[in-house]
Amino acid sequence: MDINPLATLDRVQPDDIDDGAVVILNLLRFKPGESLTTYLEYVNRVMAECGESEVELVYGGVLKERIQGEIGDWDAVVCARYPSRRHAYEMFRSERYQAIHPLAAAALEQRVLWASEPVLPYKTRSVDFEGGEWMRLLRELGN
User: Fold this and answer.
1) Is residue 130 included in any domain, yes or no?
2) Domain annotation covers residue 52
3) pTM assigned to the model
């Protein structure tokens, strides 16, 4: 499966794309090995080199037990907030992003990207997450 958003973006992008903020759900299945480290390098580079797209990582975590429903087996979830779908889709198409994307391809066996439209206030209250292994690895990559 091609995990590059360019594989499907032209087909799924609506003609009347809105300019409101969007959170894109990322469901991730890692390849065996050092995939988490490679994926975090990808995240680090996207944040550093595509910063003008104003990407905000809202949440990232390793999935635990599935409480209900069938959506397949995934290792992790990341929720990223973009100023708009237009902004996100332009970033995915950019040369900078496409130069970084091979890191994601090296780390991920499968990925689902799913744009969402807000129906509730973006932030109803602030919740601080301490992070875990991901945060430690991101800090190490940043140094």
Assistant:
1) no
2) yes
3) 0.82
